[in-house]
Write a structure and sequence with these properties.
Length: about 425
């Protein structure tokens, strides 16, 4: 006969109410401890990062005062930026910027922005109440006479309000523009492989006019083309063997006037639109991101002035994906379907009539940004005779140096004619 099963154990008695209250109190204390502890750790980390950035910026200022130039140094932040959807973020930001601000709030908001970014509120052409959105305020026009244009015919003026980051002369084959000490990028990558600057560079080196090389399809008149083969256009009648090629990089602060003006009287032959990334273009990004201006989305205007080649590259940045051309209002940048692969061909437009292009005057408005960004000007200017040591002295001289602030219409450089 089987032994009887033992009775099941009695369920444990519930803890007395006092003990339950004690346990709940302990759990709340534990949660309260963990939450402030995590918050304190995050705040401490942010504080350390902010302190390090302030220290680095202070060191940079001190080195500049000592004449020590900052060098290129990639960091982890530059790599992290590549993982972010900066183009989509910029489109969202652009949509927010277009939201209409209530009239009674406009002066307060725009004045707060002006204090934060040192904008001059005496210059806008309209009262603050008449700018319906932040975007309208950012791309504001100025009162007539706010930017007088230097009338000297032998000078090239600044196309924007901004800070001079780099400037210099381009020499030799495979000419490079210095992004920062320790890193440079090819000017051909910035302007495009089909830029006629390459012909001017070759002729400047050899002193011999190059043969004209025109694509077989050049007989077909077209004002629009998508450049895939990147043909070279050469016209020896427009080039002079006594020319130097110079560049100037100008950074627009978020509080600056955001419209782009013509630096000289010239004919714009072509426009190229390069789709790309939208990395920030501030000084920290310039020191840490390789090929910054080449990788970012940009619009290049190229043509001729009385001294030869000239081009303006308007480079987009984070939250500045929209670059507008007054001479081509239908152009759209940072589109949702744009690809950012380097293999993607850029889009090129040739302005009619081909060979004459679109005439613009010095100081004439040609483009604009939605916020701050960067403009690179590349141009030919007169050179004097070669020296005995083999170097070439220039009649052209810059009126500014790296670190200077400059405004639209002020001379970047000038030269004298004998």
């Amino acid at each position: 006969m089987a032994a009887p099963r033992p009775p099941p154990p009695a369920p444990p008695l519930p803890p007395p109410p006092r003990l339950r209250r004690l346990r709940r109190r302990r759990r709340r204390r534990r949660r309260k401890f963990l939450l402030p502890g995590a918050s304190a750790a995050v705040l401490l980390m942010l504080g350390v990062l902010h302190a390090k950035r302030m220290y680095d910026d202070k060191q940079l200022v001190e080195r500049k005062e000592q004449g020590i130039e900052p060098e290129f140094s990639p960091d982890l932040k530059a790599s992290f930026l590549r993982l972010l959807p900066l183009r989509s973020m910029s489109r969202v930001w652009g949509s927010l910027m277009e939201v209409e601000v209530p009239v009674f709030m406009r002066p307060a908001i725009y004045k707060a922005w002006a204090r934060a970014f040192h904008s001059n509120l005496q210059e806008p052409a309209l009262p603050l109440e008449e700018y319906p959105s932040l975007q309208a305020f950012f791309i504001r026009s100025l009162k007539e006479g706010s930017r007088p244009i230097d009338p000297d015919p032998n000078c090239l003026v600044s196309p924007v309000d901004g800070k001079v980051l780099r400037l210099g002369q381009l020499r030799g084959p495979g000419t490079m523009i210095e992004q920062v000490k320790g890193f440079s990028y090819p000017v051909s990558s910035l302007l495009g492989a089909s830029s006629s600057l390459h012909d001017a560079t070759e002729e400047d080196i050899s002193g011999e006019p190059t043969e004209q090389n025109v694509p077989e399809s050049s007989n077909a008149k077209s004002w629009w083309r998508v450049s895939v083969a990147s043909p070279k256009l050469r016209d020896r009648t427009l080039l002079s063997p006594k020319r130097g090629i110079f560049y100037c990089v100008l950074y627009l602060h978020p509080g600056d006037y955001h419209r782009v003006h013509s630096p000289v009287d010239w004919s714009i032959f072509k426009r190229r639109h390069f789709s790309g990334n939208l990395f920030p273009t501030n000084e920290r990004a310039v020191r840490t991101i390789r090929n910054l201006y080449v990788e970012n989305e940009r619009v290049v205007l190229e043509g001729q002035w009385k001294e030869g080649f000239v081009a303006i590259a308007a480079v987009g940045a984070t939250n500045v994906g929209s670059i507008k051309l007054l001479i081509e209002p239908e152009l759209r940048t940072n589109g949702p379907g744009s690809m950012i692969l380097h293999s993607q061909p850029y889009d090129e437009r040739v302005y009619e009539p081909e060979g004459t292009g679109m005439m613009v005057k010095k100081g004439q408005e040609v483009a604009g940004f939605n916020m701050g960004s960067t403009v690179v000007v590349v141009f030919e200017a007169p050179l004097s005779k070669a020296r005995e040591d083999g170097t070439v002295s220039s009649d052209f001289g810059f009126c500014v140096k790296a670190g200077d602030r400059i405004r639209v219409g002020e001379a970047i450089g000038r030269w004298s004619r004998s």
